[in-house]
Design goal:
Distance between the termini: 26 Å
Strand content: 25-35%
Shape: globular
Low-confidence stretches: none
Number of helices: 5
Structural class: alpha+beta
Number of strands: 9
Length: about 160
């Protein structure tokens, strides 16, 4: 079942990329007591994700934080080392990278797709989600092959 606005984010484990290395964090702890803009992408270093999606949030990070967002996080079905390398290569210092290596979070929110025909296996759909103290306030899921409603500009216009 797909998560909806008003639902609580399900409890799963994610791996937060930190300067000291990977750090396991529960979704309950990560979202507790603050407003988080969560962005999910099919894969780190993939064309649209690297050329448009992540750079848009890097560019708009200050604008999002000025509107009350405490943290901006990107998640993908990649390991923490890949997510860390992607963050560094993209100069994404204001963005928290969350690895969902086994797609547990993507499955729990019901937003996966089968990328097997591209050699990618099960992946997260592309979306943005505004989470306030663990509850989904906004959910912007892209149609397959699209990049519109999950952009930083769209999320900013909805806040």
């Amino acid at each position: 079942m797909t998560i909806n606005v008003g639902d609580r984010v399900p409890t799963t484990m994610l791996t937060k990329v930190t300067p000291d290395g990977p750090d396991q964090v529960s979704s309950d702890d990560f979202f507790k007591g603050r407003k988080v803009a969560l962005v999910a992408v099919p894969g780190a270093f993939t064309p649209t994700c690297s050329a448009r999606h992540l750079p848009g949030f890097v560019d708009k990070a200050a604008d999002l934080k000025a509107k009350g967002i405490n943290e901006i996080a990107f998640t993908s079905v990649n390991d923490a080392f890949v997510m860390g390398a992607w963050g560094k290569a993209s100069d994404a210092g204001d963005i928290t990278m969350l690895a969902d290596g086994n797609a547990e979070f993507a499955k729990a929110v019901g937003l996966t797709f089968d990328g097997s025909k591209f050699g990618m296996g099960e992946r997260s759909q592309r979306y943005s989600m505004l989470v306030n103290d663990g509850v989904v306030e906004q959910l912007n899921v892209e149609a397959p092959g699209e990049f519109k409603v999950s952009s930083a500009e769209h999320l900013l216009s909805e806040i």
